[in-house]
Amino acid sequence: MNSLLGLLIAAPLLGAAVLLLGGRFVDRVAPVLGSALAGLSFVLGAILFSNLLGKPASGRAIDSDLFTWMHVGTFKADAAFHLDQLSMTFVLLITGVGTLIHIYSIGYMAHDEKRRKFFGYLNLFLAAMLILVLADNYLLLYVGWEGVGLASYLLIGFWQHKPSAATAAKKAFLVNRVGDIGLAVAVFLMFTTFGTFTFQGILHPSVVSSAGQGKATALGLVLLLAACGKSAQVPLQSWLGDAMEGPTPVSALIHAATMVTAGVYLITRSSAIFNAAPTAQLAVVCVGAVTLLFGAIVGCAKDDIKKALAGSTMSQIGYMILAAGLGPIGYVFAIMHLVTHGFFKAGLFLGAGSIMHAREDEVDMRKYGGLWKKMPWTFATFGLGYLAIIGFPGLSGFFSKDKIIEAAFAKGGTEGWILGGAALLGAAITAYYMSRIMVMTFFGKPRYTTKAEGGTSPEAHESPAVMVAPMVVLAVGSVFAGGFFSLGSRFLHWLEPVTGHSEGHSPVSTGVLTAATIVLMLLGMGLAWFQYGMREVPAAAPRSIWPVRLARRDLGQDDFNHAVFVRGGTRFADGLAEFDAKGVDGAVRGVAGAVGGGSSRLRKLQNGYVRSYAFSMFGGAVLIVAATLFMRAV
Amino acid sequence: MTALQLLAATGSQNASTGEAVQFWVLAVVAVCGALGTVLMRKAVHSALCLAATMIVLAVFYFAQGAYFLGVVQIVVYTGAVMMLFLFVVMLVGVSSADSLKETLKGQRVAAVVCGLGFGILLIAGIANAKLNYFAGLGSANAGGNPEGIARLIFTRYFWAFELTGALLITAAVGAMVLTHKERIEKRKDQLDLARERVRKGEHVTPLPAPGVYARHNAVDIPALLPDGTPSELSMLPVLRERGQERDVSGETVHRLAELESLTDRHLGREPKATYRPGKRPALPGQGGGEALAAEPDRPEIEGGETS
Amino acid sequence: MNPVNYVYLAALLFTIGAAGVLIRRNAIVVFMCVELMLNACNLAFVTFARMHGGLDGQIVAFFTMVVAAAEVVVGLAIIVSVFRTRHSASVDDANLMKL
């Protein structure tokens, strides 16, 4: 079994190597090969999963020490993998959704010349993501962390001939770098504090508490910074919307289902650290609560279907982060929501991709409308994903999100009320913006004219089976995953040995909360239906009141970044340049000038006349005689 | 053994009166000589002043019982070294004198001030040293001064002596190397010199000799050109600078005319020739007299020389 | 008369020689002044020999003379060769000993 663990990662890595290095010789087989290797990886994951299930609940872990990576003095880092229930969950999600999206891409990217590269990058991403979740130490995790960042960068900028894509890739890379610095600092801190990187060596309550409260808080905060960068949480959220410039399968896989949830994984994995640092936990829940509202509000204002979904992703991950910040009450639900979100958000993105595929990459929802008749499969799967995400009773989102809201209330005190309120409000907004997307896209009259009718748009048509099939699978997951996990608290029991769990006591009873959630959801749906279903949707976005305009501008995130970091940074750099030119260079030049000036003045002593030199000697002799006589006299 | 020797041989705090007189007289001479060395404008005078000082010092050596050194001082220093100096002075230019203008600003004043300070310091130091007792060389010179020195040189100072020998050899070789001039190009023969002269474009021919006819061949008389003016090229520039030039151009013509008339009278014929300096007959086929002015020709006597 | 007067005389001659080295520009005269300084030293050495009643001072003076002779030979050779190339015996004309 241990060797399977290595093979699990090796399969996509091999795919990446072959596809990226193989040149045009592998052009033809690229889509099939990439998908097959991803599938192989999933099969291996499934075998490992069944193997884990066969073990007793407390000992469900597989370790695989591949080789000693670095060994310098007391510093030792192994390329070692650790598979437990948490990473198993991720492995299945990554390889499962990943395989589906590979298959989907066969259809979606069928006409793209750079298919080979695309599948190579996707495989590279799978490998890096698997390293991330399987690493048994933070250093190796960092490798995977940077690897997914790289793959994300490459895939966002996949259509780099578009300046917007190139810029978006750069933006994502730069913003992620800020978070990565957090993880790097965390790794440094761990080494200086604990002398090791391994989860086993660090993630134990007694070990963490031995480091002291301050160290634990600091570690928690830098880890949170890392999670914010990777998971697009406030304040490092700005890259996710622009990342939608990448091909839609990429948005589905990386920027919805897997990579952006790495932050949740990191926090859940480091639960021992966060449990010991309440301040850091508070920061985590604040970030989560703010982001879930932030993303939801942005999602409401966007007309670009992918950007609206990106806002939704941000918001849903905010839920997960919020849950993870709640401590043992929330870890399990954070991961559960992560998995169900993986299903329905991937499904939604694939649906959006299917629509774009049919409409020649048109993303403006104001130019959609009435698509349900033209694309029944897409409509059905998208609709199921929609119901799942808004928490329609019985579907996945209902189970996972309700649990988070419940846990937020269970936090207790004012804090609990605020967090729970935010989560509830978020649920209502989620219902609103998702309904808005749904209505604008599929209902009403078509707001475009096809070529047959004398317009410019192509006639919408259903996507090929290779694209529809993954959507169907994901839709099935969206519908049943939540119920399957919650039935008999299966997921809880599965994950509990790793993350620990404690039941919170909500001041509000579960029934009331559920009812409130459903009512708020219906309210959101109704408002959206009222706004967009009952009335004609204008083809161009009307000039609205300022909060809407602000939301359209991503709540000013870019303006803020520009004003604070870009302009501030420029000014700071200018100041430094000024200081360098005047202060440092001035000092250096001043010293040089002083030496030079003094030297040229001294040089006049050396006028080349022997007599002048002789005079110096004679004068020196006089001084020596005088000094000698003086000393003798004294 | 002279009285001087005896005086020097005795160890005492005071020298004899004779030595005192000798010292005071000769010390003045020595100081004057030294000052002369420094202050004389001409190097030759400086050298002579220095020689005087050295001789005085030789006498002082004798007075202090250093007979060998006294002799060496006269033979080597005053004899050889000073002659070498004089030789070089002659070589370099006996008349070369320092100009009075000081090139280095303040050097002279600084040197004098520094020198005064140094002198005062030294003298103060000596005065402070309480050098009162003089052992005298009585015992050291008992076996003769040169013998005593020889004994020391060939025993205790043997190595130093050998080294000074090596030093002298080195100095001699060094002097030869420094003054030796290696010929690095072919010696110019007559052809080369002629070519060089033509290339320079001045005075291709030998310079005209001074003197006029056979009557004046002294170097201070410039040769006369055909038109009777003196040629500057025929004279040493030095003589002209000194104003020692003797111009006989007027006299020559006058004498010539005198000679002609004398001859005519002697032969008993009418004087029919008239001398016209500067004017020459136009030869057939030539442009005129002026064109031939540069032709080296003796003054023409116009007349009926038809025979 | 105290023979220490010889030492005073030596100091005086030495000082005059040093001042001469600084003042004069003719290299030959400068050299003469150096010789004057050496001679002043010799006088002091001879006087000290008398003072101590040994011949070592005279030996040193003797060596000084040898060295001075060697120095004169080389120095004058240098002056002659400098004069040959620069047609001047002035130490101020050879002012290339600078940057």
Describe, in plain words, how this protein is organized in 3D:
- The complex is a heterotrimer of chains A (634), B (307) and C (99).
- Chain A is mainly α and 634 residues long.
- Chain A is 73% helix and 3% strand.
- Chain A folds into two domains: 154-542, no CATH class; 562-633, no CATH class.
- Chain A contains 25 helices and two strands.
- In chain A, strands 1-2 form a two-stranded antiparallel sheet.
- The radius of gyration of chain A is 30 Å and the shape is globular.
- Chain B is mainly alpha-helical and 307 residues long.
- The mean pLDDT of chain C is 87.
- Chain C has helices spanning 4-23, 27-52, 56-86.
- In chain C, 78% of the residues lie in helices and 0% in strands.
- Chains in contact: A-B, A-C, B-C.
- At the B-C interface, helix 2, helix 3, helix 4, helix 5 and helix 6 of B face helix 1, helix 2 and helix 3 of C.
- Chain C: Its main location: membrane.
- Chain C: It comes from Mangrovactinospora gilvigrisea.
Number of strands of chain A: 2
* N- and C-termini, Cα separation of chain C: 54 Å
Strand ordering within the main sheet of chain A: 1-2
Task: Label the overall shape of chain C.
Answer: elongated
Most extensive interface, chain pair and sizes: B-C, 93 and 70 residues
Helix run count of chain C: 3
Q: Share of helix among residues of chain A? A: over 70%
- CATH topology category name of chain C: Helix Hairpins
Mean of the pLDDT scores of chain C?
Answer: 87
Tell me roughly what share of residues is in helical segments of chain C: over 70%
Structural class of chain A: mainly alpha
Order of helices and strands of chain C: HHH
Derived structural class of chain C? mainly alpha
Q: Average pLDDT value of chain A?
A: 89
Named CATH architecture of chain C: Orthogonal Bundle
Low-confidence stretches of chain A: none
